[in-house]
Design a protein that fits this description.
By secondary structure, the protein is of the alpha+beta class. The chain contains 16 helices and ten strands. The strands form three sheets. A five-stranded mixed sheet has the order 1-2-8-5-3. Strands 4-10-9 form a three-stranded antiparallel sheet. It has a two-stranded antiparallel sheet with strand order 6-7. Helix 7 packs antiparallel against helix 8 and helix 7 runs parallel beside helix 16. It is globular, with a radius of gyration of 21 Å. The mean pLDDT is about 95.
Length: about 400
C-alpha cells in the first residue's frame, strides 16, 4: 500500500502524519511530487542504523541513473538538478572522504567563529528594522530566512543583495516538482558558473574563492564538483537554519518560561529545538544496493529510500513524550544533523545562528506574541524540509537597543 505524502493536508499535519506512520506502517512506500516511488523509514532505531548501513548508498552516478529511469517512468524528462550532482552529500567513500576533507579544510571552526560578530551585528540590524511597527510583521522572510541567507552569502562570497533572487531558486529546487525545480536549477547553475569565473580571476577571502583556488591549484575538484558543492552550501547553508529559527520563534512565543531558559542556556534550548522541530524532515535520497529488509518490510535492490530524521527525533521509543519540549532530556541522541559519515558539516554554524537569533529576539522584544493561532501558521511546502512559510508576530516595544 502506498501512503500519500506532500499534500496540503500532509504539510499542515506532518508530525501527526509521521506519528501515525510510526505506529501503523513505520516503513512505507510513497510517491514524490514528481511521482517517483520512494520508501520512507520513520522509527528512530531504524533511521539511526540505516544512516550508517552500507546497503544504502549515495553515489551520485548510480543515484542519477536510478532517478532518471524512475522520472521517465513517471512521465518526466530524465533530468536531475545540480543538488543531486557530485557533491559530498551524494558520495560514498572514497569520493566522499575526498570531497568532505576539502570542504572541511576551508569550512573551519576558526572561519565560523569569525562569523559570530557579523551574525550578531546583522541580527541587531534586522530586528532594529522592526522597531516602532504596531501591526503584525512576518518574521519568517525578514528575519528567520534573511539572517542565515545573508550569513551564508558572507561566508561563500555571494552578494547579499542577491538573496531574494536565490531564495526563489532554492525554494523551487526543494519543491520536488521538476516543472519548478529544473528551470530554477538552470538559473542557479548559470549564476554560480559566472560567480566561480569571477572568483577565479579575482579571488577574495571567502569560502568560494578558497574552493575555486584549491580546485585550480591542487586538481582536487572537477568543475562539476565545484559547482555542485557551491549550490549545496548555499541551499543547505540557509534553508535548514531558516527552519530552525522560525520554529524557535514559534516555541519562544508559545512555551511558557522558554524565554528565561533561552537566555540562561541557549545551547541547550537550541538542541531541544533541533530534536523536536527538526529543520529537515526527510534525509536526502539513498538507494539500495541489494535486497534488504527493514522493520519487516522487504525493499528490493535499486530502490530509493529516505530516512525521516524528523520523525525519528519524536519517536517515543527513544524519547519519552517525544512531542513535548523538555530540556531535562539533555538534547543528546537526536539525528537532526544526521549521523555517521554524512553528519552535517555546517552544524556548528546552524547552532551559532540559532542561538544568536533567538536570544536577541527574546531580549529585544520580550512582549512579542504570535499574531495568529499557532495552528494557523502555514507550513512550507518543500518536500524534505520542515518549517513555516510565514511567521506573523506582534512584537510590542523594543526593550533593548543594541550597540552599533
Amino acid at each position: 500500500m502506498t501512503r500519500e505524502m506532500f499534500t496540503a493536508q500532509y504539510f499542515a499535519r506532518v508530525h501527526e502524519f509521521m506519528e501515525t506512520a510510526r505506529a501503523e506502517e513505520p516503513v512505507f512506500l510513497t510517491r514524490q511530487v514528481s511521482g517517483v516511488p520512494t520508501w520512507v523509514v520513520t522509527r528512530y532505531d531504524d533511521v539511526r542504523a540505516l544512516l550508517t548501513d552500507d546497503r544504502l548508498r549515495k553515489d551520485s552516478v548510480q543515484l542519477g541513473e536510478i532517478l532518471r529511469a524512475k522520472l521517465v517512468e513517471a512521465g518526466h524528462k530524465p533530468e536531475i538538478g545540480t543538488l543531486l550532482g557530485p557533491n559530498m552529500l551524494n558520495a560514498d567513500p572514497p569520493d566522499h572522504s575526498r570531497l568532505r576533507l576539502l570542504l572541511a579544510k576551508e569550512f573551519t571552526a576558526r572561519r565560523i567563529a569569525r562569523l559570530r560578530p557579523f551574525t550578531e551585528r546583522l541580527t541587531d540590524e534586522l530586528l532594529a528594522a522592526y522597531e516602532g511597527q504596531d501591526g503584525p510583521v512576518d518574521l519568517a522572510d525578514g528575519f528567520a530566512v534573511a539572517l542565515p541567507a545573508l550569513v551564508i552569502s558572507e561566508l561563500l562570497g555571494v552578494p547579499g543583495a542577491d538573496r531574494h533572487e536565490f531564495q526563489g531558486w532554492t525554494g523551487a529546487l526543494l519543491s520536488g516538482d521538476p516543472r519548478l525545480s529544473m528551470p530554477a536549477n538552470a538559473k542557479i547553475e548559470a549564476y554560480f558558473k559566472e560567480l566561480i569565473r569571477a572568483k577565479s580571476e579575482q579571488p577574495g577571502e571567502d569560502l568560494l574563492s578558497a574552493m575555486t583556488l584549491a580546485s585550480e591549484q591542487e586538481d582536487r575538484l572537477s568543475a562539476d564538483e565545484l559547482l555542485s558543492a557551491a549550490v549545496l552550501l548555499l541551499v543547505a547553508g540557509h534553508e535548514t537554519t531558516a527552519n530552525l529559527i522560525s520554529a524557535g520563534i514559534r516555541r519562544l512565543l508559545t512555551e511558557p518560561g522558554l524565554a528565561g531558559q533561552l537566555l540562561s542556556d541557549a545551547p541547550a534550548v537550541v538542541e531541544e529545538l533541533l530534536r523536536l522541530d527538526s529543520p529537515v524532515m526527510l534525509a536526502t535520497f539513498r538507494f539500495t544496493v541489494e535486497d534488504i529488509e527493514i522493520g519487516g518490510v522487504a525493499i528490493p535492490k535499486g530502490e530509493l529510500v529516505q530516512l525521516s530524521v524528523g520523525s525519528a527525533n519524536r519517536d517515543a521509543a527513544r524519547f519519552e513524550h517525544g512531542d513535548r519540549f523538555d530540556l531535562d532530556r539533555g538534547g543528546r541522541g537526536h539525528v537532526a544533523f544526521g549521523h555517521g559519515l554524512h553528519h552535517c558539516l555546517g552544524a556548528p554554524l546552524a547552532r551559532l545562528e540559532g542561538e544568536v537569533a533567538l536570544t536577541a529576539l527574546a531580549r529585544q522584544f520580550p512582549d512579542a506574541r504570535l499574531a495568529v493561532p499557532v495552528d494557523q501558521l502555514p507550513h512550507r511546502r518543500a518536500a524534505i524540509m520542515n518549517g513555516y512559510s510565514e511567521m506573523p508576530v506582534l512584537l510590542g516595544a523594543r526593550a533593548v537597543v543594541t550597540n552599533s
